[in-house]
Recover the amino acids of this structure.
């Protein structure tokens, strides 16, 4: 029984890492579509999000089945409940990648990334990519050094997010109202993406080390 | 054992309704602070959010304890897992109310609600209030007629959210870039609030009726 259970837990873990990789791919394509006004690529991200949703639902069903058949307690139970939460965060990260692609599609053939903040968005996107790839690796390897890396990237993103609002408030800002909205929303999506990444990282950390550092961030 | 379990489920249900009522109060105050540039009220909402977070954590601990001690299966298990998800949605709704209050505080002594879309925001806020109050009632009474009411309000909010972006794109839009950002973010927060409300309503509906209508909305 115990052996079956361990194999099932391993399966859940691999499946979470698999979903994280799909999200990493979605983010990469979404950002490219956003930066280059590539409407076909944007469309691809939007269509592929249903697959992430499907995988999340399947994983959640698997987790509930484990709860029902194995009746885990203590740390095993927390791993399963934690997996349900991590899958929700990953699914939400997929949604945020889709939202970025939707911004690109909405503005096509124009570029949705306002010129004045394009370098800021590039850096935010790069950090988000690092976060989701690190999350996938963390889920697979439980290499705890990745947690600090993810948190560091998130801190830099928060700073960049704030700088977007300072750019908008600057007298030199000359974008149209619609571009201004795009900038605000894109920045918000990129920032939320990182929050969810941190949330997953903290849950892995808690489940592996048993220590919780008092997260009240993204769910 | 069964009797204890039913009493515990009832406790979880009451606690969820209790959190929903706190969120309703937070939203009401947040919207007033946003509409009237009342920085003290905004501050109150921001401070009170920690209490909602605390109640969510306590409820989740209770749910996990039930899973561990009672090892529920079938529909009982789904109720507990559903409760974990509903509590996450409610906590997130509290965060969104806090974000609205934070916009009010950020712009004080100016008014964060741009004049051109103030009536739209008033209506969105009214609908969000109806949604969260209906969610609280639905959690308490399981009166399924509330589900359609919540979904109807959400549909109207989606329409109003889109209209904010049309207003911003209109040549007559004359707000500053920072006010434009506030409009975009406030609209987004009000729209997401409704999504989470629908998500909770659909989960209650699923748990009570056993029928799922294929939600892929907010988690």
């Amino acid at each position: 029984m115990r052996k079956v259970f361990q194999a099932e837990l391993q399966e859940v873990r691999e499946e979470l890492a698999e979903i994280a990789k799909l999200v990493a791919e979605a983010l990469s394509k979404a950002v490219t579509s956003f930066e280059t006004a590539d409407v076909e690529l944007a469309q691809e991200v939007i269509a592929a999000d249903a697959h992430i949703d499907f995988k999340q639902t399947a994983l959640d069903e698997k987790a509930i089945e484990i709860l029902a058949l194995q009746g885990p307690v203590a740390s095993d139970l927390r791993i399963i409940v934690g997996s349900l939460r991590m899958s929700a965060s990953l699914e939400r990260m997929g949604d945020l990648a889709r939202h970025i692609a939707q911004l690109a599609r909405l503005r096509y053939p124009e570029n949705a990334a306002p010129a004045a903040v394009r370098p800021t968005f590039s850096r935010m996107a790069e950090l988000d990519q690092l976060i989701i790839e690190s999350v996938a690796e963390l889920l697979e390897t439980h290499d705890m050094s990745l947690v600090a890396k993810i948190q560091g990237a998130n801190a830099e993103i928060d700073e960049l997010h704030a700088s977007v609002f300072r750019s908008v408030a600057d007298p030199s800002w000359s974008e149209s109202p619609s571009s201004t909205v795009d900038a605000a929303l894109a920045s918000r999506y990129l920032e939320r993406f990182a929050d969810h990444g941190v949330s997953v990282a903290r849950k892995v950390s808690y489940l592996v080390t048993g220590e919780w550092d008092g997260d009240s961030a993204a769910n």
